[in-house]
């Protein structure tokens, strides 16, 4: 009887243990599910937080650094710059918030064709404005004023144009442009075009012929002289780079190119074939003749005249090509791209003389002095009379 009661008690204890174990496992499973739920919730919140933060970060990086800051900062983009290096440069200059975001913005929008050069950006510009500027080389915003510098102007004439847009007089501008310290600074900044050639002691103005003729847009009411000159030298640099291969083939320096181009520019009329004029100058140098071009005489005199007199031809100056053979010490004016091209591509002729017809500007060429004098009598002397 006792054994039966003992066995019955053991069965109850065993069932109780099983029940308790099941309850414990259920509790543990419930706790584990809660823990997993909490961890999952935390993970989701974390992912969501990261995504939210990432979205806002990217969105912020795509916006202007400071929409109210229109102050322009100069940014020099070197030749061969990658999108990555441009992004880092713009970030360093405070123009964009993140260079990496800039790189992916360019990539995802299939933007290409960025040009090297000297730019001016402000923190208020959008990425679209910045990329369009880098593609075209021009600021897409409306300019405060534009300054036009025509072809064939000497440095003193250009100084007068600049003076209209600064608080400096043309005389002060010319002195500043001739200042050795400023010239040295510009030489360091533009070593491809401003070489030791401009330091020749016979040169009147080191920067003569190096300020490219064009219409320039400015985004400040009174830009500094340095920024104005920087724009013009950058444009010269852009043009000259295109002809670097031809210059190397002809063993021609930038200084020689711009000097020859300036002579062509000053002699050419609207109806002139610059390549023919170029051929005359090269033919003369090959035969040992002086160039005998009147604009160099007037430059030596420091005067702007419609006619050169016989007494003018006697002025003692290294620029006077009537008494000194070969090219003058340096350019006598700025020159446009057509004259630069002509200086590199003279026509294949035997011409040694040319003259512009009085009243029409039509240019006539000749191989001999006798032919030249006959043309002079026909198209100049008789027409003036």
Automatic annotation (TrEMBL):
Top EC category: lyase
Membrane topology designation: Single-pass membrane protein
CDD domains for this protein: MltG_like
General function of this protein: Functions as a peptidoglycan terminase that cleaves nascent peptidoglycan strands endolytically to terminate their elongation.
Keyword Transmembrane helix: yes
NCBIfam families cross-referenced by the UniProt entry: endolytic transglycosylase MltG (TIGR00247)
Family: Belongs to the transglycosylase MltG family.
Site (Important for catalytic activity): 267
Transmembrane parts of this sequence: 35-55
Name of the protein: Endolytic murein transglycosylase
InterPro entries: MLTG-like
Matching Pfam families: YceG
Database matches in HAMAP family: MltG
Catalytic activity: a peptidoglycan chain = a peptidoglycan chain with N-acetyl-1,6-anhydromuramyl-[peptide] at the reducing end + a peptidoglycan chain with N-acetylglucosamine at the non-reducing end
Taxonomic source organism: Lederbergia wuyishanensis
EC assignment: 4.2.2.29
Localization, UniProt: Cell membrane
Major localization listed first in the record, in broad terms: membrane
Keyword list, A-Z: Cell membrane, Cell wall biogenesis/degradation, Lyase, Membrane, Transmembrane, Transmembrane helix
Signal peptide: none
Keyword Transmembrane helix: yes
């Amino acid at each position: 009887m006792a054994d039966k009661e003992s066995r019955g008690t053991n069965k109850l204890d065993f069932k109780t243990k099983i029940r308790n174990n099941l309850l414990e496992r259920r509790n543990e499973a419930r706790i584990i599910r809660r823990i997993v739920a909490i961890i999952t919730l935390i993970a989701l919140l974390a992912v969501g937080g990261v995504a939210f933060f990432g979205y806002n970060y990217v969105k912020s990086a795509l916006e202007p650094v400071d929409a109210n800051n229109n102050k322009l900062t100069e940014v020099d983009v070197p030749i061969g710059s990658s999108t990555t290096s441009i992004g880092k440069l713009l970030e360093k200059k405070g123009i964009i918030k993140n260079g990496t975001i800039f790189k992916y913005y360019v990539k995802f929008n299939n933007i290409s064709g960025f040009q090297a050069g000297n730019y001016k950006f402000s923190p208020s510009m959008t990425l679209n404005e910045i990329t369009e500027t880098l593609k075209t080389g021009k600021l897409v915003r409306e300019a405060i004023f534009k300054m036009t510098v025509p072809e064939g102007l000497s440095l003193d004439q250009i100084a007068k144009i600049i003076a209209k847009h600064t608080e400096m007089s043309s005389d002060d501008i010319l002195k500043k442009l001739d200042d050795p310290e400023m010239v040295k600074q510009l030489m360091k900044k533009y070593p491809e075009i401003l070489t030791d050639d401009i330091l020749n002691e016979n040169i009147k103005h080191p920067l003569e012929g190096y300020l490219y003729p064009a219409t320039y847009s400015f985004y400040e009411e009174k830009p500094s002289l340095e920024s104005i000159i920087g724009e013009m030298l950058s444009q010269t640099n852009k043009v000259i780079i295109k002809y670097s291969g031809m210059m190397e083939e002809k063993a021609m320096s930038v200084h020689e190119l711009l000097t020859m181009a300036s002579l062509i520019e000053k002699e050419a009329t609207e109806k002139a074939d610059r390549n023919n004029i170029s051929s005359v100058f090269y033919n003369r140098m090959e035969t040992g003749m002086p160039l005998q071009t009147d604009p160099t005489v007037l430059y030596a005199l420091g005067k702007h005249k419609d006619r050169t007199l016989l007494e003018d031809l006697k002025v003692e100056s290294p620029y006077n090509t009537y008494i000194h053979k070969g090219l003058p010490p340096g350019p006598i004016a700025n020159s446009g791209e057509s004259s630069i091209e002509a200086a590199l591509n003279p026509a294949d002729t035997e011409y040694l003389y040319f003259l512009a017809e009085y009243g029409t500007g039509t240019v006539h060429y000749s191989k001999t002095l006798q032919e030249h004098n006959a043309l002079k009598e026909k198209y100049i002397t008789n027409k003036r009379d």
